[in-house]
């Protein structure tokens, strides 16, 4: 995966780091899908399994999952670990889209 190319976009890129064995990650997946459905093509979305992308997770210092990040124009705009509701993520992304 070449995340460097993806996060260069002017569109906000929602990136969720997860693991298949992580129950909170499984619980958060429908929330993320709801965000993507709601905001649509205004954002990009990537879901990255830390077990399949060790180097990338290490490089970004992912210490717990789920960790969700928002990048725009190659800049980290937001990062948090834990479960977030679709409403919270939609608000964060909407505010970011309005500020552009």
From TrEMBL:
Protein species of origin: Chryseobacterium pennipullorum
Pfam families on file: Thioredoxin
Domain Thioredoxin per the UniProt entry, residue ranges: 1-98
PROSITE patterns named in the record: THIOREDOXIN_2
Entry keywords, A to Z: Disulfide bond, Electron transport, Redox-active center, Transport
Family affiliation: Belongs to the thioredoxin family.
Any single biological process term in GO: cell redox homeostasis
MF terms in GO: protein-disulfide reductase activity
Keyword presence, Electron transport: yes
UniProt superkingdom: Bacteria
CDD domains, sorted: TRX_family
Protein name, per record: Thioredoxin
Disulfide bond positions: 22-25
One CC-aspect GO term: cytosol
């Amino acid at each position: 995966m070449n995340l460097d190319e993806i996060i260069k976009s002017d569109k906000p890129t929602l990136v969720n780091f997860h693991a298949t064995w992580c129950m909170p990650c499984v619980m958060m997946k429908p929330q993320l899908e709801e965000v993507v459905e709601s905001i649509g093509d205004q954002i990009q979305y990537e879901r990255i399994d830390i077990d399949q992308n060790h180097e990338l997770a290490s490089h970004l210092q992912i210490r717990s999952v789920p960790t969700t990040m928002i990048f725009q124009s190659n800049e980290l705009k937001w990062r948090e670990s834990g479960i977030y509701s679709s409403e919270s993520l939609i608000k964060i992304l909407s505010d970011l889209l309005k500020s552009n």
